[in-house]
Amino acid sequence: MDAQGRGRADDIDPADQWVLNPTTGEYELRLTPSAPQSPVPGPRRSAPRSGGGGGSASGATRSRSAAPGRTAPAEAPGRDVPPPRRRRGAPEEPLPGRRNRRPVKKKSKAKKAVVWTGGVMAFVLIGTAGAAYLYLKHLEGNVTTEDVGNVADDGFSKDEAFNILIIGTDRRTGAGNEGYGDKGSVGHADTNILLHVSKDRTNATAMSIPRDLIVDVPDCEVTEDGTTKVIPGTQDKRFNTSLGQDGRNPGCTMKTVEELTGIDVNHFAMADFNAVKTLTSAVGGVEVCLAKDVNDPDSHLNLSAGKHTIEGEQALAFVRTRHSFGNQGDLDRIKVQQQFMSSLMRKMTSGDTLTSPTKLIKLANAATKALTVDTGIGKASTLKDVALELKKVPMKNITFTTVPVKDNPAEVVKATVVPLEPNASQVFNMIKSDTSFTAVKAKEKKEKAAVAARLKGTKSAADEVRVRILNGGAPGGSAQEELTYLQTEAGVSKSENAGNAEKALTKTTLEYAPDQADQARRLAAIMGLSGSAMKPGESVTNSQGLPTMTLTLGEDFKGAGVKLNSSSATVPNVDKTTANEVKCAS
């Protein structure tokens, strides 16, 4: 009989047989109070009959026959014969000859791993495959995998930054979901979040992508019943059509994100409506805050202003509501969803839910049953690795933001949006360069002091700087993106795009004439150029016939607004919040 069967036979919840080993800092399976601990659950051999050889894995004893005329010695408790099992709720009695020991009050690494395992994946409304830290093999059977070919990585690297695309579909699958979403929907990409986790695991960014964002959907390959076919791409279509439409799979959505942002997407995780309902019920409800009364006839959310604890159907209604918040559009609904995710995350990391193996298993089962992932992270060992990396990120350093957008100028009746530049490119570049939104302010303060010292005695203002920009090895379009940033954000209005350089450069350089040294120092401070990047030389004539400096963007160029001498950037003017902030939906 396995551990689960044995626990049920004795009215002991199988989860209660998992205990924290204070020495190793890990949860381990303890079958009896005195039995040796095993780090993973496994099959138990049947206890041998009388005269059989060898004890079972759980410490079952051999049958011994007393010699004639002698009395068989009593078995020593705690050695061969296990003491009577304790039923749930009954106090545990100390073993003979041992003192009662106080529990070790130590925050173990395992406990933190469990907290983050649940928290980080749950905050994206998908759930925590990582709670499989306790019951990994069982949970693996819950997870559905989908092969998207070489679009996703084959495996998971613990030494690099990683990006997981979280997709919530509007497909009416699951019991009780017949009235949600679009009737007959093939499962479009309704809720989309690109989760970036930094290489050093100090921060993460969850960037929402509006479903009504106009994008180009590239060609993509899908495989059905062993047959591979190419689905032609489309131009100027809603982002949500990148999934389901014309038979597109999550790999098509991943490729669409990569083409839109220039960010390499490593993996995807997808869920339906049941994810929100089951997760919130598993943790006993999530606290939300409303700035006003809400009675929405479309989502059926009916709550008064103030704080409420919601779960199940009511939680799903909350995240689906849009006509009662802000401008009654999808962008304001995204803000409410981000507030909900933060609250769910706080609930899972601050309460005692995750200190109980029983509750952990309930949560993990609920989450993974609603989850579909690519084959690269579908294995038990890989899910565990993802979980352990996610748990390292401090909650205060997890930023929620949305792709900066504006109304589609091609529409008379505004229904869709397009990227707002240069803000959108700045956000994308921050993620590509592994730059933290939360650490930027502190770094900016430090850098401003350094810039002030560097500019001491400099007379040229930003609007007096004349410079032409060449692309000499940076990604395509970088010269124009940097020009837009310099003109609109940095005040360098006398700048122009001069196209591509004659040859590629490894490092970005600024060439200037001796009488332009003052302007050069000003531009170097704006861009974070090092001394080695400054090249005294000759000026050139710009389109107005005036002498100007030449800025050549090299392979080290990190993106518009990102300083070359650090990993920080000027934070673009976008809405953002962190997971530890409490806000009320309005």
- Radius of gyration equals 30 Å
According to DSSP, the number of beta strands is 26
| Structural shape | globular
* Strand order across the largest sheet: 3-16-11-4-5-6-17-26
Instruction: Please report the number of helical segments.
Output: 13
Briefly note the structural class of the backbone: alpha/beta
The amount of beta strand, in percent, is 15-25%
Helical content stands at 25-40%
- Major pleated sheet: 8 strands, mixed
Question: How far from one another are the termini?
Answer: 55 Å
Spans of at least 5 consecutive residues with low confidence: 1-15, 31-82, 84-134
Average pLDDT works out at: 76
Quick structural overview:
The protein has 586 residues and is of the alpha/beta class.
Keywords:
alpha/beta; eight-stranded mixed β-sheet; six-stranded mixed β-sheet; 13 helices; 26% helix; globular
Describe the structure.
The protein is of the alpha/beta class. Helix content is 26%, strand content 20%. It contains 13 helices and 26 strands. The strands form 8 sheets. Strands 3-16-11-4-5-6-17-26 form an 8-stranded mixed sheet, with helices on both faces. The protein is globular and about 70 Å long. It starts with a helix and ends in an 8-residue tail after the last strand.
Question: Which helices and strands, and how do they pair?
Answer:
Elements: H1 3-9, E1 18-21, E2 26-29, H2 109-122, H3 132-140, E3 144-146, E4 162-169, E5 189-197, E6 204-208, E7 214-217, E8 220-224, E9 227-231, E10 234-238, H4 250-261, E11 267-271, H5 274-282, E12 286-290, E13 294-296, E14 301-303, E15 306-310, H6 312-320, H7 330-350, H8 357-369, E16 372-374, H9 380-390, E17 398-402, E18 405-407, E19 417-419, H10 423-432, H11 440-454, E20 466-471, H12 478-488, E21 494-500, E22 509-512, H13 517-527, E23 534-536, E24 540-541, E25 547-553, E26 576-578
Parallel strand pairs: 3-16, 4-11, 6-17, 20-21, 20-25, 22-23
Antiparallel strand pairs: 1-2, 4-5, 5-6, 7-10, 8-9, 11-16, 12-15, 13-14, 17-26, 18-19, 22-25, 24-25
Helix pairs in contact: 2-7, 3-8, 3-9, 5-6, 5-8
